[in-house]
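RETRY 2/3 - previous attempt timed out on the joint model. Re-submitting the same 578-residue input unchanged.
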Amino acid sequence: MSFTQNDSPPALVVDNLRKVYRNGVEALKGVSLTVQPGDFFALLGPNGAGKSTLIGILSSLVNASSGDARVFGRSVARERSEAMRLIGLVPQEINFNQFEKPFDICVNEAGFYGIPRKLAAERAEKYLKELRLWDKAFHQAREMSGGMKRRLMIARAMMNEPRLLILDEPTAGVDIEIRRSMWHFVSAINAAGTTVILTTHYLEEAESLCRNIAIIDHGTIIENTSMKRLLATLDVETFVLDLAEPPGELPSVAGIALRRIDERTLEAEMARKQDLNTLFSALTHHGITVHSMRTKTNRLEELFVRLVEQGRTPEREKAA
Amino acid sequence: MSSSTNLVALYTVARREIVRILRIWTQTLIPPVITMTLYFIIFGKLIGSRIGKIEGDFSYMQYIVPGLVMMSIINNSYMNISSSFYGAKFQRSVEEMLVAPMANWAILYGYVIGAVARALVVGALVLVVALFFTSLHVAHPLTALAAVLLGAVIFALAGFINAVFASKFDDIALVPTFVITPLTYLGGVFYSINMLGEPWRAISHANPILYMVNAFRYGILGISDVSVGGAFAVMLMFIAGLTMAALYLLRRGVGLRS
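RETRY 2/3 succeeded.
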């Protein structure tokens, strides 16, 4: 499966999208963004930021109050069928009939897209095998574990072989091994040409998989850039140092803030442009041996928290 | 989406419904047959044997068989679609269809076909059980078949609309309890409206179930309280009106889209 990316319209254009629910809550306040074909795009935001509303509009489950979204040039509002044919959706909540069998769930899904039953059965076998669900294909879905159910929703979303795959927190509550196998599958799908939009609360997932990113908060896009450019704006990093012996007096190094965390652990906060050799020279000079070292927090997480907090002025909090 | 791909979608919804009905046949097919058997025993055999001939040369048991078959068709058609579609809403599996490019008519009539299939199987089983209690000579087979088909479609459409509006399981039990059951009992299942005085006889003509029961009774026994042509016209009008209403609700996303 591959798609020509040249001369193709953007995979997704969201144009000044607004959504006001009947209870008066303004979930989206004029959101605009563009996702290029073949991209692996992260859509991040805290709970209640508007991510699910945006995905709901893209998948036609939520009607926009104004604005439009176009999937490969097809308007979700005016050319719903054509736009939906291009989308695969993995929703946040389990939304298949748990009394049905995974094979039937996948084949029926294909049927809803007008795919003949024979071809649907071939695809169901292919994707259930790729997602390591084939041995459960003919058992009731309710017998499956949470991770299996999430993989089933990915298999189901692949039945129409979409050009745009939207994953709404696909790895929530899934153990790391299964999460990695899901990343591997989705990365392969993306490498084959499918555009992927991912929302997740696991920011290391977004950082390692996605090339571009938008952060949404209170219904507004507060950042929309490439992952590389966003991470480059992080000017401070914090390292955690595990020591061989409890240290005596801590060295004083210009530009590096050293703090004791416990008897054998230090925390060093330093500018990204500063080299680590300065820190290690000073520690060695003071007879401090470092056993191991790790970054304290995920870089994207650091930025995410900072951006969201910057955007939360008292006025905006009140308005929200 | 082209009509051929919509036909695949229609087939998929209908097939899924029929598979579901067969998977839980002990809940979908057997209970109505047992209920109707009790009606035959109590009203037809025990009480009916004391009533004598009705509407000419028919025993009371023969007279009520078409009404009871139609009653089971109506109930099963309605309950099947309302519980199945509301269940899909409740566990959100309806979203599988809502995010797909399929047309609304394919969703609607996929469910209707499923409901009609269950109603016809139950109706056939009830008719077979009836033959253990009385003999029947089908006067107009095609009329009988058309009457059950249209009756099942009408109540499938009504059940679908009920499920669209329902926000809890109680909501799909209200209409059968407070609307369908009274209308069925007052719709000439157990008596001829010719036995009623005015104004009850005239009022009975406002009951749509009267036309379904009598069209089917004409098909089986060859007798009817109302004009058979008029009965079919009323049924077709209901189908057109309910189809338009259901498609309008789906287009607007009432109870389905935010």
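The mean pLDDT of chain B is 90. Closing ticket.
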